[in-house]
TrEMBL record:
Full protein name: SANT/Myb domain
Chief location bin: nucleus
An example Gene Ontology CC term for this record: nucleus
InterPro entries: Homeodomain-like_sf (IPR009057), Myb_dom (IPR017930), SANT/Myb (IPR001005)
Length: 357
DNA sequence: AAGAGCCGCAACCGCCCACAC
DNA sequence: AGTGTGGGCGGTTGCGGCTCT
């Protein structure tokens, strides 16, 4: 036999909480705590609410020191950086932002942050398309050449891959790790998440890799008092996610650097926008642009085949793009790649994340 | 002024894992 | 050992308010 059912869904109240309900819940928890049993709690205080609903209300709204709205630029940057690195693990991201709840961050990302980024990106695309049209009109004789010539993406400042041990910001990284146990817990938690994915062998090894990460080399430095550009998110000493974003202008240049990568792929049609491009990759292997076989996609297969045991026997990888995003963040074997390739993959993963939204 | 459409956010849903029974 | 719930999480929905036409 299991436990008793948590609540009778037909008899519990749903929808918005009234001030009276809030007051009851808050007052009780402040005096007695949750008692470790959310399901029993509403009955104790005479609330016709599901225990889960009470828990949610407390965690997301009534809990002390909760901040709502008014996200700062620094918080934006942290959210973006973590999202790029670990994806939609809102609870983990929230843990890095005191006073913020996972629900709040999730809502903020979904309703504003991603649009903020996409909006800029789309404007750039529209400007490029308009420029292409103008070129066609100006010189119809060479129009075809211009369409097939890769677009000259704007040059960006180089994004350096900074080895952990030589990075002055991280020299004293041990001092930043005040709670190694919690970090380990976090890493295990992150690793555990991979068990949700489809490849058991890969997951098993991935989990091992994560558990074996030298904690001293895992360091996230929110350092709210310092310039955001000094922040770095480091997973192991092989994958360093540079966080040089001082504002969204710079942030969206990351998208442009993904564009620059396309330039290196012979296949690229300059009229294809990023969304179409990533969609093509996601949708179907046969449709993926030819150049990817030898460049990006080939690299992916190296990643999966060489270290993760993902269908490596056949030489065919059934790893998904989503898995690649995870690999980019965690796979130690990425250190085999040139830094530029790592940055390329990271940019692609970010672009994919944006596009998939 | 009013209806349509959009946006932001609180709350719900459904899934997974750990663990009580 | 098997079953099923509690807690936790990410994804989604629905509603109220705002803006636009």
């Amino acid at each position: 036999m299991g436990r008793a059912p948590c609540c009778d869904k037909a008899s519990v109240k749903r929808g918005p909480w009234s001030p009276e309900e809030d007051a009851k819940l808050k007052s009780y928890i402040e005096q007695h705590g949750t008692g470790g049993n959310w399901i029993a709690l509403p009955q104790k205080i005479g609330l016709k609410r599901c225990g889960k609903s009470c828990r949610l209300r407390w965690l997301n709204y009534l809990r002390p020191n909760i901040k709502h709205g008014g996200f700062s630029e620094e918080e934006d940057n942290i959210i973006c950086s973590l999202y790029i690195s670990i994806g939609s693990r809102w609870s983990i991201i929230a843990a890095q932002l005191p006073g913020r709840t996972d629900n709040d961050i999730k809502n903020y990302w979904n309703t504003r942050l991603k649009k903020k980024l996409l909006g800029k990106h789309r404007k750039e695309q529209q400007a490029r398309r308009a420029a292409t049209v103008r070129m066609k009109q100006d010189n119809s004789a060479t129009a075809i050449d211009q369409v097939t010539t890769p677009y000259s993406w704007p040059q960006l400042p180089p994004v350096s891959h900074v080895p952990v041990m030589s990075n002055p910001i991280l020299v004293d990284q041990e001092a930043h790790i005040k709670d190694q146990a919690s970090l380990r817990k976090l890493l295990i938690k992150l690793g555990g998440r991979f068990s949700d994915h489809h490849h058991d062998d890969y997951n098993h090894e991935q989990q091992s890799n994560i558990n074996n990460i030298n904690i001293a080399n895992f360091c996230y430095q929110p350092n709210m008092s310092s310039p955001v550009q000094d922040q770095q998110l480091v997973f192991d000493n092989t994958v360093t996610l540079n966080n040089n974003y001082t504002n969204f202008d710079v942030m969206t240049e990351s998208l442009s650097s993904a564009n620059m990568m396309y330039q290196g792929l012979d296949c690229l049609d300059s009229t294809m926008d990023l969304d179409q491009f990533v969609y093509t990759i996601n949708q179907s292997d046969p449709q993926r642009p030819e150049g990817l076989n030898n460049n990006l996609y080939g690299s992916m297969e190296r990643v999966s085949g060489s270290s993760c045991g993902t269908s490596s026997n056949s030489g065919e990888s059934n790893i998904t793009w989503g898995d690649i995003t995870s690999l980019i963040s965690y796979n130690p074997m990425l250190s085999d790649f040139e830094p530029s390739q790592q940055n390329m993959l990271q940019d692609f993963a970010f672009e994919d994340s944006i596009t998939a939204l």
